[in-house]
Amino acid sequence: MRVSVMATKGLWRVVLVVFVCLLPVVAAAHCDTVDGPVVLDGQRALREGDVAPALKWVTPAHEEEIKALFGTVATVRQAGGDGGKLAEQYFLENLVRLHRAGEGAPYNGLQPAGTVDHAVAMADTALANKSIDELVDILSRVMAAGIRERFSHALAAGEKADESVDAGRLYVAAYVDFMHHVENLHLAVQGGGGHHGEAAAAPAPAGCPKHRQ
Questions:
Q1: d(CA 69, CA 66)
Q2: Percentages helix, strand, coil for the chain, rounded to the nearest 5?
Q3: Is residue 35 domain-shared with residue 90, that is, in the same domain?
Q4: Domain limits for position 96
């Protein structure tokens, strides 16, 4: 069973690598959106009159603040009208803000629905369906395509590298791009990813890949 566990971890690492290295970075962070998991659990808490669903999104340091705010907002909402709607919005904004603060990430306000990258939405769907196979298959193909494209470019350029200085420089550019791409994928697998679109590892500077220490 050890092989099975290690294989499963490998699949998740592939998903992580593709997210941080190959897919476009969306302007809004996943948990900042009005259709993201933090807001949805905040709305559930307000709907059920129980703060518990929201608490898991904040650190213990922020728990009392959210509890106090939830109580105040619940009182205002009982009065109904526009005040209740504003109070609900205020609670959700602060829930997201404190969630981000707990991770050391900036908060730039709630973002519109539908601004999350399609692959991130697929990851949520995978969790909901309790199946990772489709997501791993799609993202693995994206990753493989990126590696193959750079490999083919470097290989073709290398065949003409000695024809002239300019041709040699084109080969060097293709070589460095290929090596950095592979290196950054490997670093991401080793080190894990950042939060919602943040790079898992800083890209290597221009030049040859780093040597092992």
A1: 5
A2: 70, 0, 30
A3: yes
A4: 30-102
Let me know whether 11 and 51 are in one domain. Answer: no
Q: Which of 208, 122, 212 is nearest to 173 (CA)?
A: 208
Give the predicted TM-score (pTM) of the model: 0.56
Instruction: Give yes or no: residues 153 and 184 share one domain.
Output: yes
The answer to whether residues 15 and 53 belong to one domain is no
Identify the CA nearest to 209 among candidates 179, 187, 172: 179
Which residue from 193, 198, 203, 197 is spatially nearest to 12, judged by alpha carbons?
193
Contact residues for 50 (Cβ-Cβ < 8 A; gap 6+)? none
- Based on the domain organization, do 150 and 88 belong to the same domain? no
Q: What is the DSSP string of 44-75?
A: HHHHHT-SHHHHTTS-HHHHHHHHHHHHHHHH
* Structural domain count, the chain: 2
Predicted confidence (pLDDT) per residue in 53-80, tens digit: 999 999 999 999 999 999 999 999 888 7
CA–CA–CA angle 90, 93, 94 (5° rounding):
85
